[in-house]
Amino acid sequence: ASSIAFGFGGFVATVALALIVFVYANQSFDNYFRSFLALVPEVQRETVKAYMREIDTNLQDFLKGLVTVIAIVSIISTVAYSIIGVPFALVIGLLAGICNAIPTFGPFIGGGFAYIAMLMGLAAGDFGLTDFFVRCAFVLGTILGIQTIDNSLISPKIMSDAVDVDPLLIMFAVMVGAAVLGFWGVLLAIPIIVVIKSVIAVTNSRTKL
Q: So where are the chain's domains?
């Protein structure tokens, strides 16, 4: 169980690091923005500035929506796991929220931590074998229930308001990203869609002028 825990821990650490890098890069956008504009010919600077400002605005909206979803899923998961009696419910709930940032596969990855905690509890003698299987069944129900609520209510509402992208397009982008780049493709699928949407929006607005 410990080797599995370390494996999952490394995976989540990678996800968390990617999110931290994304946040830092987003907050440092103005510095990169000014440096990049200095390299652009003056006649094209206004056009480039319009594209980059639109991308920056939409990525910030995406990030705010993502953090909101993570917070909501973390709270729901923590409460549910506490009721079930999963060891380290607060930590497991937070990990479930972070993993939920990974489209499609995240809830199942986050649920894996709950089962690892259950195995640790069983090994420590916190509950018997029958109780273990009963709690595992409730954990599975919780994972499926939270995923259903998130997919049907939480994420569509929050993320559609944040980035204004069709959920079917997001799902397609995630599938293509997974096929082409694996884990990183899944993680970067939505930001790439946001960038493409921003470019199209600015192009259309400037064409109408």
A: 2-208
